[in-house]
Write a structure and sequence with these properties.
Belongs to the MoaD family. MOCS2A subfamily. Heterotetramer; composed of 2 small (MOCS2A) and 2 large (MOCS2B) subunits. GO terms for molecular function: molybdopterin synthase activity; nucleotide binding. The chain is α+β, with helices and mostly antiparallel strands. The protein has one domain: Roll (Ubiquitin-like (UB roll)), CATH 3.10.20.30. The chain has 3 helices and 7 strands; from the N terminus they run E-H-E-E-H-H-E-E-E-E. It has a 5-stranded mixed beta sheet with strand order 2-1-7-4-5. It has a two-stranded antiparallel ribbon with strand order 3-6. A hairpin with a 2-residue loop joins strand 4 and strand 5. It is globular. About 20% of the residues are buried.
Length: about 90
Amino acid sequence: MSTPSVRVLYFASARTTIGLSQETLALPTSPFPLSSLVELIANKHEGVEQVLKTCRWSVDNTLIELDEIGEWSLKGGEEVAVIPPVSGG
């Protein structure tokens, strides 16, 4: 049986800070809380935790509301987008 993993897409300041546009991350457990993904990414990429804490998240093109992150778990195979706040004019 293979280790469950997710494809993580990084945008804007998350992409710049991490230096990648995407990567595949193995999940330590399945199901794995979406709220714990910040720590998993921060442990792999030094200096990115503050950026990640300001980001919005989507799972398989579903934007997760900030107050619902704790209700989401990842099983493996999902595409997770890390979307930093943006401003426009």
